[in-house]
Amino acid sequence: MARNSLGREIPETFAGKKLVPYSDPWSVQPHAERSTRQIRRIAHNGSKLVGGLREAIIASGLKSGMTISTHHSLRNGDRLLNELVREIDALGIRDIKIASSSVHVVHSELVPYIRKGVITGLECGVNGLIGELISKGELDCPIIVRSHGGRARSLITGEVPVDVAFLAAPCCDEYGNFNGFFGPSACGSLGYALVDAQHAHKVVAVTDNLVPFPAVPVSIPQSVVDFVATMPSLGDPKKIVSSTTRITTDPIGLQIAKHAATVIEASGYVKDGFSFQTGTGGISLAVAEHVRNMMRRDKVKGSFGCGGITGYFVDMLEEGLFEALFDVQCFDLKAVQSIGRNQRHMEMTAGTYANPFNCGAVVNRLDCAILSATEIDVNFNVNVNTESMGYLLHNTGGHCDVAAGAKVSIVVCPSIRGRLPMIRDEVTTITTPGETVGVIVTERGIAVNDNLPELKEELIRRKAPVKDIRQLRDEIQAVTGVPRPVEFEDKVVGLIEYRDGSIIDVVRKVRE
């Protein structure tokens, strides 16, 4: 075992892979040249249609021991991954690694296939039952969790070689041009699939909406698609929404949002050219409403909003508060409709969004960003992967990418959740290192990282409730008490990879 710079014990190897312990957010440099797909030539004007999923699997040459990927733009409405694994099992293929952009609660149907050895590894974030069962030691399936930018990096460098990408294509022609904007399963941006399409060894476009050539506009072109397959339904777009898309009415949430808005205003960045990211959830949208009102009041024309886009950001774009939206995934149907008709609402790849090893990710241009947390510690480290019982229940998303890129990253979190304190001496799992986190906002006060002294002084001047983070911890634990630490066994069941490929933490089996 080795210790990374945050004091976390990291194994030297995991699932046969030599690990690089996390050092700091910026020191790791690319260690591989850009990978390229095998050059191939198909018959002139030949058909790429192969039938259904089973025929596509056979045509792709998928064999036992290979790695597949899908994208999660349909989120809990996705049907492709579950059906794909059923067909892989029926063909007798085993020892498959899944390197999808994310696995969601809907994919709990994969549990029996993990038990029988069809799936033997997950190179992706997980949400829900699968992560819980692996944390309990009830499933033997090593997991490597990556951020959106880190996943893009790993595919581009070839660190994670995807043998076959099966990409949900809501609007597709017989030659493989497709987009996510139209059709019964329209999901909007294909920001994750764009990376797979460029770097997987084989690409299968799977559609429930085959249209005459050419399918326009083209998000993913025919030049990278090997085969086209059909299935009755890719999924249910109504289940894309994974969180509330309405402003909170909870008094605690409203107080947090008010404090966060004070931080943004004090930062001095709300001026022409302002750039901003916030996620879904009632508190985040309440912060966005405050920002919207500031921009209206001061007649500010923002540069861009980015990340996963909601209808709330669409409204701000159409109101003229932003020049553009950069969209890696649509979080609701209003965003899906917008991206198909508004040229200023732009699809971007996960690599463009957040890959640390390119010529400049969009996150590096962010002024302010609102992030969430499962736990926070007195060193500003943030956990979004594991819950209070120690189970791995959540993907990283773009959390550590945005925190590293934005000028001011603001983590909003209630001080108490389920009678447990959210600020602790040490988080259960480190997702995002504290040195990249600017401000912690709770209803009880605001803690500012020492690396933003001018912002702290300005907030104090404005008589904002600025407190030392240890003071916040003490006030919260005076109400909740100090929780008993979760007990873990020595066995490592998963890795939390930082965006640069180093290992920032591990997930161990929970002692029952």
Could you characterize what this model shows?
The chain is of the alpha/beta class and 512 residues long. It has a domain at 251-491: Glutaconate Coenzyme A-transferase (3-Layer(aba) Sandwich). Helix content is 26%, strand content 22%. It is built from 14 helices and 29 strands. The strands form 8 sheets. An 8-stranded mixed β-sheet has the order 18-17-16-15-19-22-26-27, with helices on both faces. Strands 5-14-13-10-6-7-8 form a 7-stranded parallel β-sheet, sandwiched between helices. Strand 26 (439-442) and strand 27 form a beta hairpin. Helix 5 (148-157) packs parallel to helix 6. The chain is globular and about 70 Å long. The model has no long low-confidence stretch (mean pLDDT 94). Keywords: Cytoplasm, Lyase, Transferase. Its main location: cytoplasm. InterPro entries: Citrate_lyase_asu, NagB/RpiA_transferase-like. It is found in: Cytoplasm. One of its GO terms (molecular function) is citrate (pro-3S)-lyase activity.
